Amino acid sequence: MHLAILMANTDDSPFGRAQPDDGQKFSALLHRVRPDWTFEVFFVKDGIFPASLNFDGLLITGSPASVHDGADWIAQLEALVRRAAAAKVPMFGACFGHQIIARALGAQVGPNPNGWVLGRIETQFEPDAETVPFYAAHKEQVLDLPADARIVARTADCEIAGFAIGSHILTTQYHPEMTHDFVAALLVAFAEEIGEDITASAAQTLDRATDITALAEWMATFYETAKPQAQTSSPST
Length: 237
What we know:
By secondary structure, this protein is of the alpha/beta class. The chain is built from eight helices and eleven strands. Helix 3 (72-87) packs across helix 4 (96-104).
């Protein structure tokens, strides 16, 4: 399996520069369960895009950027999403990736009614209503579904926490690639920007880590089984 990782993360803070980039994070995540897979990272946030869709799948990362920012690279990425969707190239989006796929395909993205959603979030997967923890860091969310999409995950603060189209598109508002230590350090690094109360509330959720290997298996299974009419399952823990 050879995947294109479309790196959208624009964080150029000292904290961000000290961390592995999202291309490295997602490569490491999937290598936990599929060590023979290969990845090509394209820094789309710098205007660097694949020349073709000749990959086994695409993966769009998160970003502190908003899909509403109006940057040229965001418009280019939306156009690529539409081409990939039309060609039924398997495509996974996380956080910003989830939102850009939704917007490119006709859905609305807007502010979260309750502001920041941070920390470990219990996510309910359809159709079996299994609850799986993810890490969250977002202020916007998908407000309605693209055509032919179905909700595959919900949370208390986000009705569309993940959606699927056929079985060639799968998204999550959350971050399977983030580790417990990364999220804990993120809260410390951005506490002043986020605010004391929100930071403290998010920190209280970190008493239990997510099962990152189960999340990796969920993503890998999506790419392996992506084809029309297949069913999307939840990441069992």
